[in-house]
Amino acid sequence: MFTSVNPATGAEIATYEELKPEEVEAKLQCAADAFARWRTTSPGERAELLSRIAGQYETHKARLARTVTEEMGKTYKSAVAEIEKCIAGFRYYAKRGPAMLEPEKAMLANGRQGETHLLPQGPVLAVMPWNFPFWQTVRFLAPTIMAGNVGLLKHASIVQGCAGLMEEMMAAAGAPEGLFQNLRIKSGAVASIIADERIVAVTLTGSEGAGASVAEVAGRHLKKVVLELGGSDPFIVMPSADINAAIPQAVTARVQNTGQSCICGKRMIVHADIHDDFLKGFTNAMLAVRAGDPMDEATDMGPLSSFEQLDTVLDQLERAKAAGGTLTGGERIGNAGAFISAGVLTGVPWDSEIAREEIFGPVAMVFKAKDADEAIRIANAVPFGLGSSVWTNDEAEKRRFITEIEAGMTAVNQMLASAPEVPFGGIKRSGHGRELGREGLREFANLKTVML
Fold first, then answer.
1. What is the per-residue pLDDT for 270?
2. Which helix H or strand E contains 344, and what residues bound it?
3. Where are the beta strands (DSSP E) in 223-266?
4. Contact 101, 397 (CB under 8 A)
5. Using an 8 Å Cβ cutoff, are 68 and 118 in contact?
6. What is the distance between the alpha carbons of residues 132 and 127, in angstroms, rounded to a whole number?
7. pLDDT exceeding 90 applies to what percent of the chain?
8. Is position 331 annotated as part of the catalytic site?
9. What is the CA 272 to chain-centroid distance, rounded?
10. Are 263 and 387 a contacting pair, CB within 8 Å?
């Protein structure tokens, strides 16, 4: 049984029955049958379906967004933005996907011609998290459909309403039966599905532990796996930067989605020459963030996704203080919902255990760096390597940060955000493989070499 609970009120929304083994089997066979038909469709047919799916999301935008807000607590206005990004993702692959599937030609040394074809492989299992319940799934789904594959979704337990709506939108767009199916299963059932010979690959967005578990099973059965795991992104600010522009972006990066984003800036690393000015402005701005009813347009930040997540964040903050940190803000608000105020941690040793963790809530750690060398050293001192944001107008510093920060993505003088046009993913313990862009389409395609 799955239960959706509104984290803003603690009220139960709905319950959902877990699938029985025979129901899971039926869905796996349905996916295999759907792939046998879908793999033969033309890129143009696939693009037309993606456009129709985008149209359904556009038509039902308000309903989809409200469900996100009710199930995991993000503000309604940010939920609308998430649905709009999904629409853009579907439309990007509808427009650009057919050209991506055109064979790449190469002239061989013997004068003959070679080609690389991108061909579909089969049903792909996606294990997805609750923080962006629609967008995280679309990042896998749109390129999967475009490549000629089919998808099965094992979604987070607290957003089963969102998962069901995704299946509904697909059907309403005229998707063939079995092209995309929601699997209402618990985590313990994932391993047997990965092992099933009908599943060709798996993609997971989630924790390090979940990623290691899925990768172990996938490796044992020689299945391709893409992992997008945690992140503790550095947000570096140097003296040449415009700190009046950097501060509001740092606040947004830390409190968007109530701090529950893998690529939001979590560790503010500030050059000593401007540290005090930045800290004062940043702290004042963080304390001014309004937490409250996520349906209210005036609210900046909703609750955390669940009371369990609230307990996790509060425990991390206590450990940060025990390590020597000073916390300003970051306190629980009331008792009815999973609310916490935005906060700032200072004085935490940058090489301490807690500084190496990802705090998945609206509290930032601020560190002082004496120069660019130390800023890079602090940035790379964590096991993660997902994203990063650097603020400098010095060209040499830009080149150094782009080259030397250990991350899959770097934004210069802006907050990092995902976009359909460019690949998304990380290195180190943040995972491997890429979503979005052409690379996201290639991850689950058979790159077949053809000699002519």
1. 98
2. strand 343-346
3. 224-228, 234-237
4. no
5. no
6. 13
7. 99
8. no
9. 32
10. yes
Q: Torsion angle of alpha carbons 262, 133, 341, 248, nearest 10°?
A: 60
Q: Determine contact, residues 361/258, Cβ cutoff 8 Å.
A: yes
104-107 vs 389-391, strand pairing mode: unpaired
What's the pLDDT at 178?
Answer: 98
Backbone angles phi, psi at 232, to 5 degrees: -130, 70
257 vs 131, 174, 252, CA distance in Å?
Answer: 8, 32, 9
φ and ψ of 60, to 5 deg: -105, 25
d(CA 365, CA 348): 7
Q: How do residues 363-387 score in pLDDT, each as one tens digit?
A: 999 999 999 999 999 999 999 999 9
Measured between alpha carbons, how far is 337 from 73 in angstroms, rounded to an integer?
A: 10
Region for residue 79 given its phi and psi (left: phi exceeds 0; alpha: psi -120 to 50; beta: otherwise): alpha
Q: 390-426: per-residue pLDDT in tens?
A: 999 999 999 999 999 999 999 999 999 999 999 999 9
Average pLDDT over residues 127-138: 98
Structural domains in the chain plus CATH codes: 2-229+430-451 (3.40.605.10), 234-412 (3.40.309.10)
**What is the distance between the alpha carbons of residues 441 and 141, in angstroms, rounded to a whole number?**
10
* Catalytic residue (one of 71, 82, 228, 443): 228
Q: Which residues pair with 329 in a beta bridge?
A: 343
Residue 98: pLDDT band (50, 70, 90) is very high
Cβ–Cβ under 8 Å, residues 406 and 429: no
Classify residue 103 by its DSSP letter: P
Place of tokens 């099965």: 152
How many residues can be counted in the chain? 452
Across 278-302, average pLDDT: 97
DSSP 370: S
Among 86, 162, 262, 264, the active-site one is 262
Please tell me the distance from the alpha carbon of residue 128 to that of residue 43, in angstroms, as a whole number.
26
pLDDT of residue 214: 97
Percentages of the chain per state (helix, strand, coil), in multiples of 5: 45, 20, 35
Structural contact between residues 128 and 156, judged by C-beta atoms closer than 8 angstroms: yes
Catalytic (active site) residue 162: no
| Run of H or E residues at 252 | helix 243-255
